[in-house]
Design a protein that fits this description.
Layout: H1 13-28, H2 31-47, H3 54-79, H4 87-130, H5 136-154, H6 164-171, E1 173-175, E2 178-179, H7 180-197, H8 200-210, H9 212-217, H10 222-248, H11 257-269, H12 281-300, H13 305-340
């Protein structure tokens, strides 16, 4: 056997892939939201046994899918070490663009214009962050006011020209017990996962968040990566705005306001690192589902809406903090064991 020859593990490839996938999920922080989803899904079934009816599934999907898509847009910015304060305003702007233009341009034209709007909003943010070297939080705080003003200029009150066909295409059923909103969310999430995990450019997104200098030293272009990430984020958010408009059958210049804090909460609950470089598509989608279920559980329990925000925040803190405390405890135990030895 030559010195360079390596031995091949005898374990089946499927086992190796499973172990690798589990390790990746653990690194990205996805295990906590998976556990939280299982727990809260069980609690939700106890509190509301009718969850698995067709109507309840459809209603839950219409609530969770827009939040999950908008949170995925926020996740992309978090992966590169930033945060997007304008994400709610982008949602509102895309929402009213779609709702007001669908009559004049038909559905495909309105969808295209909505997506272009989201991408352009992301491009403005990305240009200022990447090429003017301004902090993402400051840039997006400023552009949030601009995008919100544009949304109110287009539509100053709830309205639009949405039809029943739009509702069926965004919030109806593909087949019995399969809400179409879940299908659209799955397509977007899988596409985004392929983009991040199976393309060189997607891996640069994680690289920029982990170490921008290292990416630049490798001859790559971190500024272009940041710009493109903001643009992709805007496009993903625009799809969330379309599902939101379809589920409510109205355009609203303030429809995106609740999604700023909700998207940040979902990303925190997903286990992503706000320092950048670590985050999970699956964890984000499940975290959005958990946050939606928490609100509904508290509603069915008859708890005042003001306290729902407090309890939701405490749950999020618990899910985020407990794994950190466990890790800290493990490290301390290892250090003590090392000292004794």
């Amino acid at each position: 056997m030559s010195p360079t020859t390596t031995t091949i593990a005898t374990a089946p490839k499927a086992v190796g892939r499973f172990a690798s996938g589990a390790s990746r999920m653990r690194y990205d922080g996805a295990l906590a939201p998976i556990l939280a989803f299982v727990v809260f899904f069980g609690v939700y079934l106890v509190v509301n046994p009718g969850l698995l009816t067709r109507f309840q599934l459809q209603s839950a999907a219409s609530l969770i899918a827009p939040l999950a898509l908008i949170a995925l847009g926020q996740l992309l910015i978090v992966l590169i070490g930033g945060i997007d304060i304008s994400i709610g305003a982008i949602t509102s702007l895309c929402n009213v663009v779609f709702a007001t233009q669908i009559a004049a341009l038909t559905a495909p034209g309105a969808i295209l214009l909505c997506v272009v709007t989201g991408v352009l909003c992301g491009a403005v943010n990305g240009l200022l962050v990447a090429y003017v070297n301004l902090p993402a939080i400051a840039v997006t705080l400023a552009t949030a006011f601009i995008y919100a003003a544009l949304a109110r200029q287009i539509l100053d009150r709830p309205g639009g020209a949405l039809s029943e066909e739009v509702y069926l295409a965004t919030s109806g059923e593909l087949v019995a017990y399969v809400p179409i909103a879940v299908v659209w969310l799955t397509v977007a999430a899988v596409g985004l996962w392929i983009f991040l995990q199976r393309t060189a450019f997607g891996r640069q997104v994680y690289g920029v968040g982990s170490g921008r200098v290292a990416v630049q030293s490798a001859g790559l272009k971190p500024r272009l990566t940041i710009l493109m990430t903001f643009m992709v984020s805007g496009g993903i958010v625009s799809f969330g705005a379309i599902l939101l408009a379809g589920s409510t059958l109205t355009g609203d210049p303030r429809s995106g306001d609740p999604y700023l804090l909700s998207s940040i909460a979902v990303v925190a609950l997903s286990g992503a690192s706000f320092a950048g470089g670590r985050g999970s598509i699956l964890g984000t989608v499940l975290a959005a589902a958990v946050l939606g279920m928490v609100g509904n559980i508290l509603f069915f329990a008859g708890i005042n809406s003001y306290w729902q925000y407090v309890i939701s925040a405490l749950i999020i803190l618990a899910v985020v903090v407990i794994p950190r405390l466990v890790q800290l405890s493990i490290r301390r135990s290892a250090l003590r064991k090392g000292h004794h030895e």
